[in-house]
Amino acid sequence: xGLEESKTGDDLxxxxxxxxxxILTKLALANPSLLxxxxxxxxSTTSLPVKVAIGASVKHFFxxxxxxxxxxxxxxxxxxxxxxxxFLFESNLxxxxxxxxxxxFVTHKKPLVALPLVSKAIPTILEGELTQKKEYVKxxxxxxxxxxxxxxxxxxxxxxxxxxxxxxxLEDNPTLLTLGHIDWSAVFTQFVTRSFRDDQxxxxxxxxxxxxxxxxxxxxxxxxxVLEKFIASSNKLxxxxxxxxxxxxxxxxxxxxxxxxxRCLKKMDLLVQKGVLKMDREGETQWRDFIKxxxxxxxxxxxxx
Length: 305
Description:
about 300 residues; mainly alpha; globular
């Protein structure tokens, strides 16, 4: 089925819409006035395949530094329309994935362009995009067994990667911090609350991001409720029990997750000991008691690096 024949976009595969996006990019590179057409179309079209094709073109534009410099305003608008406006928060997963992919790529390539858009998107992402939604979950029957397939897993994982990439860009260029207005305490708390109950790969990405956040904002545990929620969520994850007859694969995954959490906590504890990660007196007492209990329950804590 060709791109123009698809009615809903659900039957499009990535190779098709990526190829269509590349063609649209090449046409506009040769004739930049087409950018205005793309902007007008993506604003008004009700055709999902057309939106998908234009959205898929954006990443390719930002691979060309000279073209971006020459047409920064129009490309910035096209990026906004194909990410936070009409893509990222739509119900169609193809649009959602293209939206986050565009932000991810541009955050890496041109963080100055992406930062305002990511800052704008984060509150809505935290509010409703990090949880598993039943409309994206399919149940497949294989013999007597039922298996759940979460079609939105890659999308959620990309959202965590987006914040990780953003912080990495801020580390490389601290002056960008003044351009973004992000509530890092809200990001930290929602990441802990959501990711610790999600797929293992998401938990791993979140743990790496949490370490970056406490370095970016070393006073984060002095904000109301942040430390308490982090300790409670960490304990809940570490103390989660599997069924006695759980498959060996699940047991191994649980052990890997616990080890990753312990590594994260140990690194945070080192930051506390060095005076880098700040807490008030009550927080210091909570943290010491928490770490003491970890050492008693988990002998691996002092072995993790």
